[in-house]
TrEMBL record:
<dbReference type="InterPro" id="IPR036390">
    <property type="entry name" value="WH_DNA-bd_sf"/>
</dbReference>
<protein>
    <submittedName>
        <fullName>DNA-binding transcriptional regulator, LysR family</fullName>
    </submittedName>
</protein>
<comment type="similarity">
    <text>Belongs to the LysR transcriptional regulatory family.</text>
</comment>
<feature type="domain" description="HTH lysR-type">
    <location>
        <begin position="17"/>
        <end position="67"/>
    </location>
</feature>
<keyword id="KW-0805">Transcription regulation</keyword>
<dbReference type="Pfam" id="PF00126">
    <property type="entry name" value="HTH_1"/>
</dbReference>
<dbReference type="GO" id="GO:0003677">
    <property type="term" value="F:DNA binding"/>
</dbReference>
<dbReference type="InterPro" id="IPR036388">
    <property type="entry name" value="WH-like_DNA-bd_sf"/>
</dbReference>
<dbReference type="GO" id="GO:0003700">
    <property type="term" value="F:DNA-binding transcription factor activity"/>
</dbReference>
<keyword id="KW-0238">DNA-binding</keyword>
<dbReference type="Pfam" id="PF03466">
    <property type="entry name" value="LysR_substrate"/>
</dbReference>
<dbReference type="InterPro" id="IPR005119">
    <property type="entry name" value="LysR_subst-bd"/>
</dbReference>
<dbReference type="InterPro" id="IPR000847">
    <property type="entry name" value="LysR_HTH_N"/>
</dbReference>
<keyword id="KW-0804">Transcription</keyword>
<dbReference type="InterPro" id="IPR050389">
    <property type="entry name" value="LysR-type_TF"/>
</dbReference>
């Protein structure tokens, strides 16, 4: 039978509060360090006093002075509380290590990033096995805000409580791409936007950028040019499939995405001149990219993986 049966009815926080008061000799300081109201600390001490039928502390000018019972309780209780804390620390650590890092990334970058992520982590001696890459964009914000995603790479920042965002770059380059056997390559002035309008043009719709009108389509309208055909698709797979037919020409941004696309089929690509890019800029600015993530991603090993993704994405969008 327990000598002090009322002890079994006390919340475990009472013992942690007692330990902190014993170590600080001050209710106010203990409350501040624990993040509690002073009234909660006082109520907890009262509960423990009643259970042990002991005053526990005497008030003196120098602070609280423990009774003999309080000193004995502290000596016996401290090791147990330390074991209790370390057990949960290990659980948290193991849970953190085992939890997947869910990354939603704009389709424009997904394929190129997946190709480079493993080798980047190997160079940095990091474990990428817990990273899950999913297709997404700024419309994935509910997942980020609800905790179902950890990181979103998109063309718009995501705002919300517990979420941070930063701009990681802007697409600067642009390449003309088509089948190696497409007639566009026989032109002497391939870079002429007016001449490009003579060929069937394909583009992938991207939310917040060209989902309403593509810069090339806008250029044609502004200059009273009737293009042979402009065809819009909604995904990278559709874009790649239609480009593979040899029917269309298209534009692709960033060297990494261009290189990845060239590996997927019998394609050829050349860089567009700065003058032509600037003309397209007048219709619609080339897209900017943002990294949005939950606060917990900035800590420990997750923070290092976040930095790897940040630097890799920055290179992908700016190359």
């Amino acid at each position: 039978m327990l000598r002090y049966p009322e002890l079994s009815t006390l919340d475990v926080s009472v013992f942690f509060i007692f330990k902190k008061v014993y170590e600080t000799n001050n209710v106010g300081i203990a409350a501040k360090e624990l993040g509690f109201q002073s009234s909660k600390v006082s109520r907890s001490l009262t509960s423990l006093r009643n259970a042990l039928d002991d005053e526990l502390f005497y008030r003196r000018k120098s602070g609280l002075v423990p009774t003999a019972t309080a000193s004995k309780l502290y000596d016996n209780l401290s090791p147990a509380l330390s074991l209790f804390t370390s057990a949960f620390d290990r659980i948290d650590s193991e849970s953190s290590r085992s939890k997947k890092i869910i990354v939603h990334i704009t389709p424009f970058l997904l394929s190129a990033l997946s190709r480079r992520l493993k080798e980047e982590c190997q160079q940095r001696k990091q474990d990428a096995s817990d990273i899950v890459l999913l297709e997404g964009d700024e419309n994935t914000s509910p997942n980020l805000l609800s905790g179902e995603a950890d990181i979103v790479v998109s063309e718009r920042p995501i705002y919300g409580r517990g979420v941070q965002h930063e701009r990681i770059g802007q697409q600067e380059s642009l390449f003309i791409i088509a089948s190696k056997h497409h007639e566009v390559w026989s032109n002497t002035d391939i870079d002429s936007l007016r001449d490009l309008a003579k060929h069937r043009f394909l583009y992938q719709s991207r939310e917040g950028f060209n989902d309403r009108i593509d810069p090339f389509e806008s250029y044609c309208r502004d200059n009273n040019i009737l293009p042979q055909e402009i065809y819009k698709v909604s995904s990278f797979c559709e874009w790649l499939a239609n480009l593979s037919t040899g029917r269309y020409i298209s534009f692709v941004g960033t060297k990494e995405v261009k290189d990845y696309t060239l590996q997927q089929g019998d394609f050829k690509a050349i860089a567009m001149s700065d003058d032509s890019i600037n003309i397209l800029h007048q219709s619609l600015m080339l897209p900017k990219f943002y990294l949005s993530y939950v606060d917990s991603m900035a800590e420990g090993e997750r923070g290092r993986l976040l930095d790897t993704l940040r630097q890799l994405c920055t290179r992908l969008v700016s190359a």
